[in-house]
Amino acid sequence: GLGAAVPAAARALPQSNVDAAINAAYHQYLPLTEGKNADYIPALAEVPSTYFGIALVGADGQIHSAGDVEQPFSIQSISKVFNMALVMKESGQQRIIDSVGVDATGQVFNSIEAVEQYRGKEMNPLVNPGAIATVGNIQGTDPDQIWAKIIGIHSDFAGRQLEVNQPVYQSEAATNQRNRAIGSLMSAYDRFAMDPAVATELYTRGCSINVTARDLAVMGATLAFGGRNPVTGKQVIDSSLVPGILAVMATAGLYDDSGKWLFKTGLPAKSGVGGGLMAVAPGKFGIGTFAPPLDEAGNSVRGQRAIIDIVNALHANPY
Ligand code: DON
Question: With CB atoms 3.0 to 4.6 Å apart as the test, which of 21, 178, 272, 286 could cross-link to 276 if both were Cys?
Fold first, then answer.
């Protein structure tokens, strides 16, 4: 594309521009009170709505940030990206295509109609039915062993040992009847061999992993740089797996608003109902934000606004 015509020096990200872009977005949206915390998972309603953090990590692994970037919160749906990466790493990308699908459903993230419409096929790993089926496709039968792989790959992407937010986990586990139904339905359509109750439980635990905005920036940067964590230097997944992951993020990462998001940023991203948002500028940077109030589609209001501004300021839209 046109990128090839731009001299390398112009494409590098001058550090002062990055910090200026982050600070401008931070101060612009700090006072914004639009949106509402998720409350269908009771513990998420109790997280202070005022938290706001932005972090960006480029090729050198240096962290640029503003605000509450060390505040832990539950990763929620952003974990779906890393479970997809795990299944691809273990069993190849064809397994995801065959067992889960890679097409947007055009429906809300926990839609049962979407499952029925396609008889459990042609979902994708970033909506709940596909995400539970993705966990169900992780190899093994011992839940502890499977959990070790799930927390392990999340930790490798983040470059540090992550842990579960127990209050959020207990809160969701006590109220996730709908996800258990979805897991059973996907199992009935033969999308995976694992006991559906186990798959749903492991999926829920994965959603409760605590991360910070800084972690999301490092995790995004690992995808931006071909699966190699720029902070630790570890090759977490083979670079050949990255384009497929980013493709599903681009088409389904922000649910029914994925098109609007791509229109404004051109970047693959993934949101979580805990208020996290992770975006990937391939070859350039990963960005992570935390701001709990969500819009109608379930995506962080301030996170989206901040990333859109930063992407524009840094000319990071590839289109
Ligand atoms: O399964 C759920 O409903 C939550 N653990 C995750 C949903 C979620 O984050 C959707 N995101 N925007």
Answer: 272
Alpha-carbon distance values, 82 to 130, 138, 154 (Å):
13, 12, 6
| Residue 190, phi-psi category: left (phi > 0), alpha (psi -120 to 50), beta (remainder) | left
Look up the CATH number of domain 77-207.
3.40.710.10
- Read off the pTM: 0.95
CA of 63 from ligand 1 middle (Å) equals 27
Say whether 77-207 and 2-73+209-313 share the same fold.
yes
Report the CATH superfamily, name and number, of domain 2-73+209-313: DD-peptidase/beta-lactamase superfamily (3.40.710.10)
Look at residue 12 in the predicted model and tell me its pLDDT.
63
Burial class for 144, CB neighbours closer than 10 Å (0-12, 13-18, 19+): exposed
ipTM associated with this complex: 0.95
User: Domain spans of the chain?
Assistant: 2-73+209-313, 77-207
- List, for residues 234-274, the tens digit of each pLDDT value: 999 999 999 999 999 999 999 899 999 999 999 999 999 99
Best residue among 168, 273, 290, 301 to mutate for probing ligand 1's pocket (most ligand atoms within 8 Å of CB) is: 273
Averaged pLDDT for residues 170-175: 96
